[in-house]
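User: I'm putting together a teaching handout on how multi-component assemblies are represented. Below are the sequence lines for each component of a complex, exactly as they appear in our records. Could you produce the 3D structure of the whole assembly as structure tokens, so the students can see both representations side by side? Please keep the chain order the same as the input.
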Amino acid sequence: MRVSTSTLGFALLALLAKGPKTAYELARRANRPLGYFWSARYGQIHPQLRLLAEAGLLEVEAAPGPGPHDKRIFSVTEAGMGALGEWVCQPPRAEPTRDEMLLKAYAVWTARPAAARGLLLAQAELHRARLAEYEVIQERVLGSHPDGQVPHRDPDFGSLATLRYGIGYERNRLDWCEWLAAQLDT
Amino acid sequence: MRVSTSTLGFALLALLAKGPKTAYELARRANRPLGYFWSARYGQIHPQLRLLAEAGLLEVEAAPGPGPHDKRIFSVTEAGMGALGEWVCQPPRAEPTRDEMLLKAYAVWTARPAAARGLLLAQAELHRARLAEYEVIQERVLGSHPDGQVPHRDPDFGSLATLRYGIGYERNRLDWCEWLAAQLDT
DNA sequence: GTAATCATGTAAGTAGTTACATGATTCG
DNA sequence: CGAATCATGTAACTACTTACATGATTAC
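Assistant: Of course. Below is the structure of the complete assembly, with chains in the same order as your input.
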């Protein structure tokens, strides 16, 4: 089965695999939890859903909506699930790295140390907040599996995998911000 | 001083702040070390340099080149250094997160566990190699400052800041890949 | 009654990638 | 002598963002 859709297409499939949704709902959830690792706006989601439906990876069900248009509920077809599962095991394409904070750190020697320190401490607080947030969500998800075991085929298995990464990421980033701020202090 | 250039513009300023370069050299170094946190291709660098020069942040010196065109060596003006230093202390714009591996992890419950495990172990090796690479570079940079102290205004201060982050990042990512692979094994 | 939410869609613009064309020099 | 490297530049394309237009329902 050869499928050529952009990574965004698979991101949408991944979200819809958990249950049918409208384009509007997808755009909202592309904040969280999808937004933790892939973000998109409605303007991009809308045409991509059409392509996925045309490729037979999504089904559409129309229902009367609140506005001038019908509401369109998307769900993943069997072909869509197959394509998603196969894509998951393919090596990721080397993505361009874009980390603005790291770029600022690289150029921090051109800045006033006190001002740079302020930015780093503010960023540290941001990471501290996200770390706490992720830990709460992790507890909640783990709590819904009283035996402590989450099967490989349970959607929560994916959520927990990403949560665990997010927690390590925020902790690392937090430590780094505080370390660099301290360096600028001497 | 109000400057409106894209983040790529500041990335180029950050690289040129260490010393004059041609567009070709910039495109090559946008692999490493710049590429560790910001990447760009020649096709994008070329027009951006023109904009920066027009804005007075860069100076150009023409020299006879090997090909049909003159070689153009860019260097940062005083205004450019000022703009860069100020930009460093501004909070980063909330960038869209795009992490394909994490997206795959989120959807890993739709895949064959054995196949997914293979991908994760391959990724782990990749991170292990990068970790070793960064540690070597860090030793080299630290070695060039025998007193163990790097002043805030030394370009190496920025390099060491990003290297330290990179090392933590790769270690975290490596651990996570191995953890998830082990989870899929049970 | 007005603001927020739900929900669709279009269009214009920016950012970034890929591919092409040119041609001298250096290395094997 | 052919391949890789140095070095410029253009054009077409894809991906993504922002802004706009429409309008019903719900909450305050």
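A couple of points students might notice: DSSP finds seven helices and three strands in chain A. The beta strands of chain A are 21-22, 58-63, 71-76.
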